[in-house]
Amino acid sequence: MRAVSQAARTALAAGSPWLDTAPNYAHGGAHEALRPVLAEYTTARVATKTGFFTEEQGRTALAEGVLTREETASRHSLEPGFVRWQTERSLATLGRVDLVFVHNPEHHGHGLDRAALHWRVREAFTALEEFAHAGRIDGYGVATWTGLTSEAFTVPELLALARQAAGSAEHHFTGLQMPVSLIMDDLIRQALDGGGPLVQAKDAGLITFGSAPLHGGELLGAMTPELVNFIRPGLSAAAAALLAAGSCPGLDVVLTSASTREHPRTLGRCGEGSGCAPDGRGSEEADR
Question: What does the pLDDT look like over 51-100, one tens digit per residue?
């Protein structure tokens, strides 16, 4: 991501209701770049994440006694103390946060059995429940890449962990982010059949976010004229791919990102009323 504040202003001026970011995005500079934009667009909602961190952020966490040297080397942590520390820093830098995603918890599960991974997720949820109870964030969620498709966890399991973290059914687990595209299309097919994680999430009242709708740009080369015409005649390949993702049943928000100022102008042409947003690379994939 380059020109973060400019990209954000372009999206918000076009009516995008959400900004999605993370402490490690833009080499750790995204939050600082977004703060004046959020101050300008006071009705925009902002989601950030906890888990991944940059090398510099890791050194600071180590110096402040939040992480051990071994944990710092992993560049990812779900330890409750770190989740609290990182979320405090996000609030201070951004000025406000509506939703905090636990970032790719399956990444932290290498070498762990499901029970151990779920315990770590629950502990992270417990830390975020504290922020929600204090009114400092509206809620929290999970942003995953392969966690749902690899069955590291399921939507009902995440909801159960949130209830355990809250100590009651009145939890603040409110959002779920996952890749949705014509390449990673399992979730689309399942939703069209009336099942799968997206339908489960919507039935539970969660806000659903689809990341990487162009699969980091890889999808564009697979969008043949025949496929584009099948989706909607007259669209660009990017707009057709975005429309396919955005039309997925149960999906509330399609996350895109632009690496140049031309992206929103030249690619985001879905047609009036199509539901598409300005185009670019999916934010999860772009930063991976």
Answer: 999 999 999 999 999 999 998 998 999 999 999 999 999 999 999 999 99
H or E, element range at 20:
strand 18-20
> How confident is the model over 132-178, as pLDDT tens digits?
999 999 999 999 999 999 889 999 999 999 999 999 999 999 999 99
Residue 260, pLDDT score: 60
Residue pair 210/183 in contact (Cβ under 8 Å)? The answer is no
3-state DSSP assignment of residue 4? helix
State how far the alpha carbon of 179 is from the alpha carbons of 30, 65, 92, 176, 240, in Å: 21, 34, 29, 10, 17
**Amino acid identity, residue 154?**
T
Q: Give φ, ψ of 278 to 5 degrees.
A: -55, 140
Cα–Cα distance, 154 to 170 (Å, whole number): 20
Question: What distances in angstroms separate CA 123 from CA 36, 82, 130, one per listed residue?
Answer: 32, 11, 11
Alpha-carbon gap, residue 231 to 237, rounded angstroms:
10
What does the alpha-carbon distance between residue 256 and residue 277 come to, in Å, rounded to a whole number?
A: 8
Long-range contacts of 31-39 (CB under 8 A, 24+ apart): 31/90, 31/93, 31/94, 32/93, 33/4, 33/5, 33/8, 34/4, 34/5, 34/8, 34/94, 35/93, 35/94, 35/95, 36/5, 37/5, 37/8, 37/9, 37/12, 38/94, 38/95, 38/96, 39/95
Q: Residue 216: pLDDT band by 50, 70, 90 thresholds?
A: confident
Instruction: Judge whether 58 and 72 are in contact, CB under 8 Å.
Output: yes
Other Cβ atoms closer than 10 A to 126: 18
pTM of the model: 0.89
